[in-house]
Amino acid sequence: MPGFEVFGEEEKKEIMDVLSTGVLFRYEFPEQRQGVFKVRTFEEQFAKYCGAGYAQAVTSGTAALKVGLTALGVGPGDEVITQGFTFVATWEAIFDVGAVPVFSEIDDTLNMDPADLEKKITSKTKAIIPVHMMGAPARIKEIKAIADRHGIPVLEDTAQAAGARLGGRHLGSFGKCGTFSLDPVKTITTGEGGMIITDDEALWRKMSEYHDHGHDHVQNPGGRGGEGRSFIGFNFRMMELQGAIGLAQLAKLDGIVAAQKKNKAALKEIVAGIPGVTFRNILDEQGDSATFLAFLLPEGAKAKAVNQALKEKGAGAVYFAENTWHYYPKWEHLLAGSTLAHSGWPFKHEDKRRRVVYDPQVLPASAAIIDRTLVYQVPIKLSEERLKQISEAVAKAAGI
Q: Which residues are the active-site residues?
């Protein structure tokens, strides 16, 4: 991880196919484009790869979340449950459609705790977004069962887990829809970009139309639709150059995952030498995309001390307890209700009454886990020199 590690002639060829036509827009220009439809082909192949009926390409993983939520009908007055360990985009998208994010605890999978999820469901809950953090599955079957009992759709945030599976089934395909990120540091990348998969044709059509200003996309020579519109939309279109890169990257995805599995196994063997270390619960080792190695120490102080030793040898791990992008108590703009809107929206109502307040201490179970957790990002290419450096760093940390 990430996919740019394996950029090569395949990506160049796909890009040149686009440049030879001069058409960068995913729609229209049928004669000039000479049958080249890279985004459309990328969607079709991505859906097939994931075992889904349909796929919709968009401009980012964040846009994918917003398009998916909008197509599900989520809006003002609604609540959406997600987890307190995720990238900020998950809850930003919830706010951006007018809904309120409600945060659940995580468990030893480092993903949504189904037991806590059920406690957070109210009559206002209109969607549930489990996040398959760091390339490994949440307890999606249990989460889906809870959601089904309450009649609530599940949108899987699969931003970090392209190529991951649970019981042979691709993550992102369990819920009503699943979203993926294709940004610069993802398992496969188009620089920026996102994808949504679903088996629901009606839902896919809503997403297709919404992401293109509400255009109906009925076949119509000379245009991208008959220009009938059922609802307002916005512009989240992916362009042909991104689709071209995506096609080349998708063809490499299984090879990327295989390389990461090999490198993760090597890293895990080294890290296992630290006294008292345990590892994240991976529900399906065979289906793990192996993009990250998460390991836990007995207590937070030990985790900090170990990481300091690793840093001193040039092999520091990610300590998410101090990370401001992915961990609930460190989201200062969420906790403070910071916004550019004069009205204070989305944290305040029009009359200035506070709409929602977040307590940094509200997820103690998650804090107890994250405080003890260190993470190595697993590269696609891992040199013997780097492996030796990490091994020496871990040996030093093991003596603490």
A: 186
